[in-house]
Amino acid sequence: MALIRADPETRLLAFGCNTTPYNNAKVFEKNFKAALEAVVEDVVLSGFATKSVVEGTDQADSVYALAQCRKDKSSADCANCINVATKQIAICNNVIGGRAIYDGCFVHFESFNFYNMYTDDGNKQVCGDANTTTANSLSASARNLISDLCTATPRIRDFFAAQTRQGPSNTTIYGLASCMRSLQRDSCEKCLTVAQENINKCFPLSEGRAVDAGCYLRYDTKPFFPSNVTIDFSPRGKKARSTVSIIIGVVGGVFILGLITCLLFFRKKIMRSSLKRADIEGATELRGPEDFDFKILKKATNDFDQANKLGEGGFGEVFKGTLKSGKVVAVKKLTLGHSARAISEFESEVRLISNVHHRNLVRLVGCCRQGQERLLIYEYMPNTSLDRILFGKNKRLLSWKERFNIILGTARGLAYLHEEFHVCIIHRDIKSSNILLDNNFQAKIADFGLARLLPNDKTHVSTRFAGTLGYTAPEYANRGQLTEKADTYSFGVVVLEIVSGRKTIDLKQPPHMQYLLQWVWSLYEDNKVLEVVECEKEMEGYSEEEVLRVINLALLCIQASIRQRPSMSEVVTILLSNDEIEFQKLLQPSFVDMGNKANGQCSNSGTSSSQSNATITESLNAL
Prior knowledge:
623 residues, alpha+beta, Killer Toxin P4, Chain A
């Protein structure tokens, strides 16, 4: 996992300004500066950002801005490229739009929402000026590489793919394709189709590029990206399957799929006929959440008696309830607004989470709408929440295997929400009290269905903060910037709580141990990080090697740079790997400065993003 820095590549490939002048210079210039400042700040942290500022009475006064760095670029290289692009885009200072495309980054602004624009008249190829001695053979290899990249990229997360291909006379061909992360998959495919037609005009030259409003395509016989970003999507084995084999496979697959469909149909029919009408809880597993009558829930919880109260969080109180059938459930009384929008959001969220099924997520049994009341009914977790096991009055010393399984289960649940469900769901409030435990101490994440969904641009500035101090990523707590990596940060904090048996903030501890992250980092710097482990001599199944890996992983999750934090699927892979993991060099994480928490100030580490941003800010101030 070593960090490799590639060339920042600030070669200007395409530039243009919209020829339409704006109407209200004062309003538009103010909106333009605000939008550009926001994307410039955020793109260095996450590689992609959008910002819309729609203040003013006229739609033409609105400004939509987008910035993206190539995914293989380091934060410093991204900042360098964006700094150059910002100065270039400043030339478009009296019109309603402009775009600058470089090898390493892209900046675009307009007075309308262009985020799903994938092509325009400005698409073109930028070719090299040198042939190779084996031009025809190289062209064939490069064409195949470009074709594979254009096919694979729209199907890959973040629309980025890089690969090398062996050409003639031991020549290596390097290829890369990328789409704007604001696009939909079909728009990415369409953009790369145009780009492929353009770049084909560069053969048999040894290098070529194609640029468009929504994508970037490049090949070269010289390396231009780090080797650790390549993706292997070539056919397995020495030879690709023949056309006949593919046809046979497709026909066979269709036949098998048809057979399975028939079997599932008859199985479902048999199961339906065998269900008793009175077994309503069983029926909900087939048809989704049940609509509960408020009177039934009131009776099940003994009129929401405080003796049945399981807990209370940001979304409302939770009560234990026993249905007439004897089934025990958890009833959450939501604290929502009474506006039409709040009711609509409740309806859409219930429809969404009714389809979320994973062994590490608390299952929604049903819901209830009664006047202004909105209730959700979940499966009941007998071992309550993780925070009560770790810190409560009846705390229990967990074995290392139990701790590890809770960590792994939580990671799997988040990976499903982020990457495996049909839309990306960001939890926003991962903490030990939102991780519930079943009879076998298997982790199940709660409250995930109450988070807002990540919009199509995958990164945005949220105007509604929903988090808990001590667990919340600094970029979200301080600027409202929300990505999946905010959950990764919170997960890292929870992991350290599980390993140490200590709260993230505990003012009852000695001063140097009151804030868990700072304390763990100080031990890490002194090579004494194992001292953080709770009762290691008494912990059953304690493994020093495994514990060290988990602590290093937790520190990686809370790194200041969003790009350095792993995705949750990568976290799962690391946890399950039997091989020795070589972690990249860890930098001091960002913490919300508890001494200035009222002001939301952030104590930062030592990466160069803030220093790099200083130069960018100077450019913006000159606009």
